[in-house]
Design goal:
Layout: E1 2-8, E2 10-16, E3 24-25, E4 31-32, E5 37-39, E6 51-57, E7 65-73, E8 76-78, E9 89-93, E10 107-110, E11 115-118, E12 124-128, E13 136-140, H1 147-152, H2 159-181
Antiparallel strand pairs: 1-5, 1-7, 2-3, 2-4, 2-6, 7-8, 9-11, 10-11, 12-13
Length: about 180
């Protein structure tokens, strides 16, 4: 069971597991502005690994809030984990504080390690076979279309597709670094 208190503006719960590899939005899990809500996830859980993703939405993102979210299993409150459930560091060095977004995925530069890390907490690092190059560590989430291939280790981009992504990354990185230098 998961309970929410102090929602601004709204949220919903999605469960990912072997039964729902593409995710199942939990019926009745929507909680709207200034409401409290409780959702029983029991019927959606499977033996093994279950990932519960809370998607929070807001019309005015400067005031996006959730005061409290609690998970209870068999009447026992579960404390939140501060550790990610998967590897989130691509180990790729940042360039001027910038990470490639098209090839690496939704990443941000960790200033302590100067490496690109997954920005979205539901994303994990996967190895991708790249034509004419070594494997790349990329951030992808359960909603990405190639996630099944990534989990199986069979995702391969065509040379033309990968080159296109790299070219977009190089130009956007230069643009970002240039605009940051004028601030």
């Amino acid at each position: 069971m998961i309970t929410f208190r102090g929602m601004d503006d709204g949220s919903r719960v999605t469960v990912f597991n072997s039964r729902y590899p593409n995710g199942e939005v939990v019926p009745g899990s929507y909680v709207y502005l200034h409401q409290n809500g409780t959702t029983n996830l029991k019927e959606l859980m499977v033996t093994g690994e279950n990932r519960v993703v809370v998607t929070q939405v807001d019309d005015c993102c400067e005031n996006n809030r959730l005061s409290e979210a609690n998970v209870v299993i068999n009447s026992v409150p579960i404390p939140p984990s501060t550790e990610p459930s998967c590897d989130t560091d691509t180990l790729a060095p940042c360039w001027n504080g910038v990470c490639f977004q098209n090839t690496r995925g939704n990443t941000t530069c960790n200033p302590l390690t100067n490496t690109c890390q997954c920005r979205n907490p539901s994303h994990c690092v996967y190895n991708v076979k790249v034509p004419l190059a070594r494997e790349w560590r990329v951030c992808r989430g359960p909603e990405d279309p190639e996630i099944d291939q990534l989990q199986a280790g069979t995702a391969v981009y065509s040379p033309l597709t990968w080159t296109g992504l790299l070219v977009r990354d190089v130009f956007s990185s230069y643009a970002t670094a240039t605009s940051n230098s004028f601030r």
